[in-house]
Amino acid sequence: MNMREKILTMIEKNSKIGVKEISVMLGEEELAVANELKAMEEEGVICGYHTLIDWEKTSIEKVSALIEVRVTPQRGQGFDNIAERIYNYPEVNAVYLISGGYDLLVTLEGKSLKEVSSFVSQKLSTLETVLSTATHFILKKYKDHGTVLCKKYEDERELITP
Amino acid sequence: MRNPLADEVIKIKPSGIRKFFDIVSEMKDAISLGVGEPDFDTPWHIRDEGIYSLEKGKTHYTSNAGLIELREEICRYLHRRFHVDYDPKKETLITVGGSEAIDIGLRAMLNPGEEVLIPQPSYVSYEPCTILAGGKPVIINLKAENEFRLTAQEVLDAVTEKTKLLILPFPNNPTGAIMEQADLEAVAKVCIEKDIYVMSDEIYAELTYKEQHVSIASLPRMKERTLLINGFSKSHAMTGWRLGYVCGPAAIIEQMTKIHQFAIMCAPTMSQHAAVDAMKNGDADVEMMREAYDQRRRFLLNAFREMGLECFEPYGAFYVFPCIKEFGMTSDEFANRFLQEEKVAVVPGTAFGDSGEGFLRISYAYSIEKLEVAMGKLEHFITKLRAEKQS
């Protein structure tokens, strides 16, 4: 792995890590690491520094859903136009173009079941290029972004071993 | 009633680590940097193979030497990674951890009174296993100024007519020292001249952070006088599976297999099936873990530098071995006070031989977050010690 890949691997797991710490751990100059980070931000390789939150453990109610969307592609536009119509809604978390039985996978977060269903029925389904939708509500998140949410890591090892 | 015990066994000192373990386990909230095994769990695809083998009812003995499929994979791996070639049928034996290979290797090779050169600081079992096999341990005290590498001169100085075997424990636990090609060539020359066999314990071979590990068995004329010991514990985070292997001249492996057959029968079957997958599909996991260890290693060395604690740069295993001589206390005293006052457990260097005096073994098989907390406490502690010394 080159320095860029190593930095990305580190900050993908821990966006809180500082430039100095990265440089120590990789054995690189601090300035070199800072420049690389800046370059990757400018190139859009790094798109943000987010926090992984298990909302289940808070008092804030949230409902997440995955929605399969079948659409009619438009001449000259393909799927891009319709994808943009959908991703502009702030409640939409992610929009992916998918191979297989349907076209777009939309993930959505709302305050309640009702809020999500009304978004689907009133906004998403009514778009003229949308042929059909199938909504799946998420009941429990076991693992998200490579992190297991439902279980805490415990060190099973003996305290001192040769 | 007469004494039920064997005199030779009673004479053997219990491991210095044990004493310390008892103190630490009394303390509830202690942070330990004293563990000699990976913090990573075994990669899931390897565990999955173990589970699958149980589901398929592969719950019987294997051949004494181990599954031929696993022996073949091991030989392919040793060729691929370390450029040594062994015959899976006659020169390879699957053991219960590298530890068993050490034990039965010594038992197969030693006649009463024959001498075994044991460089120290090193793993705790070479000396007692030599005694139990009827041999005579001859300790070579490795020096800090050589970064705890073994020199040809040190071997020459220790050789007598009775010397049969040299134990070569690199990459080293507890110092983290490695032997590079040139170091090995010098030692190999002496071994050939003096007709000494080598037991090369390469359990940490995958964990080197400079150049790739070189096996002494890959040097000219050394394969015929070397037992190469390795295993899955450190490289693939499989300590609890108890699986290792030994490769060497067919005549020695044959006799070791005999002892193994009578004492053990065969290594655990489930572990062997899982290990086939580790050999076939585990290279990326090894690489990922090595990179993580390397980052922590740099982190610790930088922390030592910032607090002015003397430490040579170790390029192997997952230990650093800082020097604490400036504080004018023994390793034992330092480790005990550090534990009592800061609740951090490290292992005194003396647990690995007298030449470990003045040093501590600190393991970095821990998350960066944990190491960060522990380094804060170490800095606090040594600042206090320096202030004490001033007044």
Please provide a written account of the structure:
The complex is a heterodimer of chains A (162) and B (391). In chain A, strands 2-3-1-4 form a four-stranded antiparallel sheet. Chain A is built from five helices and six strands, in the order αααβαββαβββ. In chain A, strand 5 and strand 6 form a beta hairpin. Helix content of chain A is 32%, strand content 21%. Chain A is extended, with a radius of gyration of 21 Å. By secondary structure, chain A is α+β, with helices and mostly antiparallel strands. The radius of gyration of chain B is 21 Å and the shape is globular. Chain B contains 13 helices and twelve strands. In chain B, strand 3, helix 6 and strand 4 form a beta-alpha-beta unit. Chain B folds into two domains: 7-41 and 284-384, Aspartate Aminotransferase, domain 1, CATH 3.90.1150; 45-281, Aspartate Aminotransferase, domain 2, CATH 3.40.640. With 391 residues, chain B is an alpha/beta fold. The chains are: A alpha+beta (162), B alpha/beta (391). Chains A and B meet through helix 1 and helix 2 of A and helix 2 and helix 11 of B.
In brief:
Chain A has 162 residues and is of the alpha+beta class. Chain A has two domains: 3-42; 55-140, Alpha-Beta Plaits, CATH 3.30.70.920.
